[in-house]
Task: structure prediction
Amino acid sequence: MTRRTRILTLIIAAIAFLAPAPAAFAAAATPPGQPASGPGGAGYQWSNYVVRNVTFTDRTKDYWTYEPSGWQGSGAAPTTAPLVVFLHGWLGDDPQYYQDWISHLVRKGNVLIFPRFQTSALTPPANFTPNAIFSIKDALTRLGSSATVKPDTARGMTLMSHSWGGPVSANIAGRWAAESLPQPKSILFAEPYDRSLDSSLAGIPSTTKIDCVVGNEDTTTGRLGCDAIWDRTGHIPSSNRNYLWMFSDDHGTPVLTADHRVPTSNNDSSVLNALDWYGFWKLGDGLRDCGLLGTNCDYALGNTARQTSLGVWSDGVPVRPMTVSTSKPACPAGTTAKGC
Result:
């Protein structure tokens, strides 16, 4: 072997040693897409919606209503639909902050009311609940007379909330009878705040279906809201009330981050992902169906695989599932949620 040949052999060996293994070139796993059907899924019987914004001199009484349009299901288009009231977070008083979730809910066949209840950081939190109640009542009157698809208030209502909307929705549910509102059949608390809760929530019916969800990287409200709500809803049996933890998962790319902004449409790059479709959207749809229709309860309650699953990465590895408890759980190891 010549000297030149020996040098080339050494160079080739060095390159082979330094080069990454073929597996390193494999694409990173990608998160699951939206399911085709079912709670949280893309099986929409309505193609669009009609939105109306009603304003007042006191802008804290403003609200938006949404009714589904463009029926694409079988048979004649329904003239009534379940009622969903959506309660926003601190300064999230424009539905654009939640537009993706709202669009999903309405195209799934709900009439939705979005009370503003706050216009700035100067709006007193003590006014949030009465402001929202005023808006709901006014909206129901207008929808009842002018909407093409009217809310079916006889069946009750579903409350969905994020952050400071959590205590507002709890207070509304507790005051429903005194305020002559539709009965709250189910409530989704998505990372609720712990302030301005009524001292008693005994007015919430014991039959109301409840999910309270904490994100394990929610450093804004963390577990404090769910803990406070839990302490005031002990009259609701464990069969109707679940405390859930949602976890981040960095198995693939992009990572799934269970922080305080998951429910919003203004998170980083407005990305929708499995934490929406298999998380809050699925739980909300399941709670609505369970509370109003008695169906799909296993997507919302009971610590079932359908409730806890967040889908599967493209390489077949399950996304870290949610955990469910019927009592206030200990903080999971490694969580950075506020209150842990």
